[in-house]
Amino acid sequence: MKYNRILLKLSGESLMGDKSYGIDPDKVNEFVHEIKTIYDKGIEIGLVIGGGNIFRGLSAAGQQMNRTQGDFMGMLATVINGMALQSVLLQNGIDAELLSGIKIDKIADEVTPLKAKQALSGGKIVIFSGGTGNPFFTTDTGAVLRALEIDADAILKGTRVDGIYDKDPEKYEDAVKYEKISYEEALQKELKVMDSTAFALAKDNNLPIVVFDMNTKGNLVKVISGDKIGTLVH
Q: What is the Cα–Cα distance from 224 to 210, expressed in whole angstroms?
């Protein structure tokens, strides 16, 4: 396998399936099945999922809601999504631990790098919720931070598009896909891989990012096997 320990980043919207908001149980089951294919191969897996299917702090701030309050509400949304994933993972016989960047004792332990690494080494999938625990940071930044804390080999960012393009492939038929791209080029071209804070943190720590289509069955195992799936940012 090309990667032994990975951080899988999913958007909250990916859990909606065909719904306009909330969580689609069928989509969660579908993702868990894909995750199980690499878990069964012995891959150590950290998970970060956004909260946009439930609440978006930044959007709320644009509607005159206090940004700090909005961001904390978004963090709580990621905890809800993490609970949903943990529940389905456990139902499928996969031991999963939910950790949180904000203190919420009855639901999840607080994140520490040591606790996360011990859980991963013990065969558990670790779900990181609650973002960084601070407002003004996205779940992308949270994902890079957690990946660095657990010494992940790479961040795998599962999206509904099969990689990074020079422009939106859902709008432009002539969009060109990158097989590989450097951090510098992606930043210079302002490609929307992750927000600039997350991207700069990954760049400064030489953390590879693979952007791929999570909705295509079998793609996740292809990525961790080193197949040329998606786009590698390095």
A: 10
Q: What amino acid is encoded at 110 in this protein?
A: E
Beta carbons within 10 angstroms of residue 73's beta carbon: 17
**What's the CA gap between 194 and 180, in Å, rounded?**
16
Burial class (CB in 10 A: 0-12, 13-18, 19+), 135: middle
pLDDT at 166: 87
Cα–Cα distance for residue pair 164/24, rounded to 1 Å: 26
Local confidence band at 159 (pLDDT 50, 70, 90 cut-offs): confident
Structural domain total, the chain: 1
Locus of tokens 């639901």? 107
Residue 7: enclosing H or E segment and its boundaries? strand 5-10
pLDDT of residue 187: 84
Range of the domain at 117: 5-233
pLDDT of residue 62: 57
pLDDT band at 59 (very low <50, low <70, confident <90, very high): low
CATH number of 218's domain: 3.40.1160.10
SS3 label, residue 135: coil
